């Protein structure tokens, strides 16, 4: 009923709360996000579903960053390639603090958690050539990959690792 009345955000939140419908809710949210039909929160730290002061009832806002990170938490260490595909959806969503997108934040957190830097970022061989990592599959520019690597290094350094 929520979908039929255009209350997509509340409908998606309901689907995500139901374990057997969770994946459908996440995939539907990604499709609605990319087509511009979702009302999203301005902060990646907001709850999954929120109301902003200027929203008229029954309007709700969905937090796509929280939705995707909650969904990928279950499998990100065992299937990092799949988790990166979900994180890539967040490349236009920005994290609080320094101007980093949520894609960079999630990838950095995943790399620090799994410690599989070579598989995620790629590696240099003995001749100085880069062997591509999982990030290279997204067709991102080398500068974008370097940005994520530098951000992961900064996070690691800040944690004293």
Automatic annotation (TrEMBL):
Localization: Nucleus, Nuclear pore complex
GO molecular-function term, one example from the UniProt record: structural constituent of nuclear pore
One Pfam family per UniProt: Nic96
Keywords noted in UniProt: Membrane, mRNA transport, Nuclear pore complex, Nucleus, Protein transport, Translocation, Transport
GO CC terms of this entry: nuclear pore
Range of residues in the leader sequence: none
Domain of life the protein comes from: Eukaryota
Family designation: Belongs to the nucleoporin interacting component (NIC) family.
Protein name according to UniProt: Nuclear pore protein
Organism, scientific name: Diaphorina citri
